[in-house]
Amino acid sequence: MKVTLVVMFVLIAAALPTSESCQPCPIFWVPYQGNCYRIFAEKLTWKQAENKCQRYRNWFTRGHLVSIRSRGENKFVSILWNSATDGLVTRKPYATYWIGLTDARYEGTWRWSDTNQLATYTNWDRNQPDNHSGNQDCVTVWNRGGLQTIWDDKQCNAVQGYVCKLPQNNY
Ligand SMILES: [Ca+2]
Ligand SMILES: [Ca+2]
After folding, report:
1. Could you tell me the pTM of the whole model?
2. pLDDT, tens digit, for every residue of 112-133?
3. CB 63 within 8 A of CB 128
4. Core-most of 29, 115, 158, 159, by most CB within 10 Å?
5. Which residues pair with 111 in a beta bridge?
6. Percent of the chain clearing pLDDT 90 (strictly above)
7. What is the C-alpha separation between 60 and 83, in angstroms, rounded?
8. Ligand 1 centroid – CA 108 distance (Å)
9. Measured distance CA(22)–CA(83) in Å, rounded
10. How far, in Å, is the centroid of ligand 1 from the Cα of 134?
């Protein structure tokens, strides 16, 4: 009897829709673990890109440049970028893109633009961040093809593509 109940529960649970099908992302945005992601090839400065991401909003919150809080999320964003820049990822200008990490406020203190939280997961390249010429406060991802992506601090006024992230739960 117990086994039958367990089997029934599993069957019912499997038949229920996933949370993703209940809370779809806006068109052109891709879901991953409760958030929606979209890549933009338009070349902007870090601040312009952050402002652009903030134009996407719902009733409760707004978008920001992507925060990357785990190895899995880093991999997901890499795959997303690769898929949209098909075959061009190792060539400029498609090889780099902005993410929402900055130390503009306090040198050496890296915070995400979406929550102002300190970065815990990071994927810095060797010898980075180096604040080269004393003027690198914004983080770019270098995409070297496949899943070989590393982070580097860069001049915020450089222009390049970017990735935005919007919480999915509030749709
Ligand atoms: Ca810096
Ligand atoms: Ca650097």
Report:
1. 0.82
2. 999 999 999 999 999 999 999 9
3. no
4. 29
5. 102, 118
6. 61
7. 30
8. 6
9. 25
10. 7
